[in-house]
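=== RUN LOG ===
request id: a7f3
mode: sequence -> structure
chains: 1
length: 274
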Amino acid sequence: MCSAYFINMVSDFHNDILTASGDLKELSQSVSCCVCALFRGGRSFQTLRKTARKFLNARPDNLFLGLEDIGYFEDGNAAEICSWRPVYASLTWNGENALAGGCESDGRLTEKGRGAVKALSEHKICIDCAHLNRGSFADVLDCGVYGLLDSHTCLCGVCQHPRNLEDWQVREIAARGGLVGICFVGRFLKEGGNAGVEDVFRHIDYGVQKFGVRAICLGSDFNGTDDLPQGIRKYEDLYRLRDRMLHAHYKDADADAILKENLKNFLNLCANNG
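=== RESULT ===
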């Protein structure tokens, strides 16, 4: 297969297109479905609200909203944020905020964070554990969370990194019917970076062998990183990843499940439960 035929054959759990102000129509035509992440960064809640409303008013049917770092979540805006119906919300980024501790901090889930998890769960919004440190992840498990996932990460079983998931974390996500999106950040894929298609495959294959085909999908982090693997710069390039999977004797159906169907089915389920 070549890139010319690899259109609408991929689903993506995490694309930072809303942060990059990219072309939604072009994205919609390139993927089967995609979660468009709205990253807090240094943006005010007013700016985030404007961006979310603009997206929701114009989004194609195969694009969905995700929230990255909801440190702005509080009683005064909780109802409005939940009304946006994001597929998921992550509590923090790499550092520590009023809700939880990220992978570069020692902070834990706070009382305010527990309140946010409860409110989101009551509205059937999944918690994205991307960027959480191990302690905050464990704290979230104790909250009786509605749904748990990791939209964009890699696996410590292949590459040790604070942003990557340990096996026990993947197991907790899979046990709750959640998905783990393998991302395309070089330094998460391979120690020292300089990653390629083979490194992406190694993380996918490790996840499949340990936790099953239905636990793994793609969470590219396109538009959120410049540290992309060699040979993967856009969705059309992912034919190389599918070819690698088939070369490793993956069945067509299993390759398609990981690249597209697992996430597509998950998003359909979220839409029906909303």
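=== NOTES ===
The first helix runs from residue 17 to 20.
The radius of gyration is 17 Å.
=== END ===
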